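agent: user wants the full assembly modeled, not chains individually. Plan: 1) parse entity lines 2) check alphabet per entity 3) run joint structure prediction 4) return tokens. Steps 1-2 passed, two entities, 758 residues total. Proceeding.
--- entities ---
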Amino acid sequence: MTSHPDLRHGCRWQAYATDGRARTGVLHTAHGPMDTPAFMAVGTAGTVKAMTADAVRSTGTQTVLGNTYHLMLRPGADRIEALGGLHRFMDWPGPILTDSGGFQVMSLASLRKLDKDGVEFRSHIDGTRHRLTPAIAIGLQHQFDATITMQLDECTPFPADHDTARTSMELSLRWGTLSKEAYRPRPGYGLFGIVQGSTYPDLRAASAAGLRDTGFDGYAIGGLAVGEGQAAMLETLDLTVPLLPEDAPRYLMGVGTPDDLLESVRRGIDMFDCVMPTRAGRTARAFTTTGVRNLRNARFAADDRSLDPGCPCPGCTRHTRAYLHHLFRADEMLGPMLLTWHNLTYYQRLMQGMREAIQARQLDVFAAGVRAGWAAAEE
Amino acid sequence: MTSHPDLRHGCRWQAYATDGRARTGVLHTAHGPMDTPAFMAVGTAGTVKAMTADAVRSTGTQTVLGNTYHLMLRPGADRIEALGGLHRFMDWPGPILTDSGGFQVMSLASLRKLDKDGVEFRSHIDGTRHRLTPAIAIGLQHQFDATITMQLDECTPFPADHDTARTSMELSLRWGTLSKEAYRPRPGYGLFGIVQGSTYPDLRAASAAGLRDTGFDGYAIGGLAVGEGQAAMLETLDLTVPLLPEDAPRYLMGVGTPDDLLESVRRGIDMFDCVMPTRAGRTARAFTTTGVRNLRNARFAADDRSLDPGCPCPGCTRHTRAYLHHLFRADEMLGPMLLTWHNLTYYQRLMQGMREAIQARQLDVFAAGVRAGWAAAEE
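--- prediction returned ---
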């Protein structure tokens, strides 16, 4: 740990160690530290589904992500602001990152109309009409009191031809500048820009350069994990990450599987978010040190072993696979509750392992060990 | 506390104090104490719905109830026995009471056929054929390792004419004797008989006398809270409770509202179970010191107060009514989780209050205070 960081100009990332392109460090924020590489738990509508805030904390999660699209529609930004902000609302005093809403407008809302200034849409809940512009998206996140605010961008669909991808990237770049103009800096808070450009190296380079010119507290890589496949995603990281500032955190949005995390950290990514551990937990899929298991499978009906021996979560320390299997077969809420808890614990222990391995400059050895565990035939 | 109880002949109830007919004491069992009057949380299928075992413990709950009908069908008694019994299966080392299965056969199963020896039925899950007799019901509960086993009985439907009620009561009485013959006593475990007889004083008296002749570790009062109304229920308690042994615990099955608990404790009841706090919690209804609230109600949308100030549960200490309202509006699992937690906490604090009030011989004063709270117009 070096000297106490100066947060007057925003949140600040401090490196501890590197191992190849991989880095470990800490993002100092107004709401406490985020050790990186970090996995942020998705708390869409002001709750990490099936988890109390205490349970989320117990998994080692430091940062929660909120979705602006969901929160602006229900309960609404004015309501959250009046109730003291998202931290108080959901009992999460730690860092909160909110997305800009743009991604979910395009995937969830109806009657979307995109123009150069923003996007108009109808709520998927009640059909009411809404509009997002860079300034509106930043304003909403300000009302939420988000620790980290994301610029409004357009997540370029995949596949996209070069012209479409360029137009889309340039729109996001312009919105990045407008987002920065609208953003009100506060000590320990931050605004992140988002690199777009699909899988085109020249567009990714232009996007990264443009965002650096504008200047952000952190840089996200968007438009990946949208169907391009892991190989194309990692290639894009290979060429994009070196174009980003060394001293700012890098956030790969919406990623991913445990293997994606290993590969992306190796390429210099510091932050992740993904619904995978929580969504999988609700559908009986468990990430473990010996691979992925579906607890609905009949082979677990009489299995009196711990789901993942060594895991400190209550599902693993207190119960058997047979009990978890029973809960899912009987449609008991405790099944999703315990398996979400487990999966988040698994993800956070994986991140902790990577942070320690980078400190020891042993990330490849660590990754090989993790993969050997997945490959080991247990039964 | 008097001397250490001798559990060689079963669980044993020890009185601390009385206040009128109300009593407080402790039921010593092989799995620890149950302070009475006690409210047992319903854990139908091996889980108190929407709660981890730790969360249930944190509410002050000492005893959990399991439903033989559900457990025999899924995951099955052989499975639970092979996995070390229900205590290990559901991580509940404390006392567990199981019902006999008879009540839910009559309410849930299809193609029921009742004869003098037992009942045949088809599973509501997969249509498989099953049979319950007194000996089978006792054997299943033995396999579960239930701390307290209930005799097989027929819960007489309401209304029933005197002849029907007498025939039904006599069947239950005979099954009580057969249940006792099948039961294998173990130190700190117990078998309870069940008084039936609808709302007919002579039948209740005959049932109580017959059960006393057979001799049980505790006496339940069944066939109430089935539509007869609170006044008829309390009248039945008025005449039935004095016919039961002074030194054995008395259990009013399937009851009830907080007001039912106050009135029944006053009449000498020691144990209760009811789905009310847990089921209500899943449907946004909260029991509080100032009455029942439906958190879906729009008037809570901006209410930044604690649901029930002074309540130690996480929903009340960490969140606002507005947040709970939001969770139910957004169909988030955390709503049912937090409200179940709250309602069980409310029920257990009510029981704790009654136990202390009986010690102080102030039960009527306590009850008046509780009712004044419910009646207070808060808003």
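agent: reporting back. The first strand of chain B starts at residue 12 and ends at 19. Residues 12-274 of chain B form a domain with the TIM Barrel fold (CATH 3.20.20.105).
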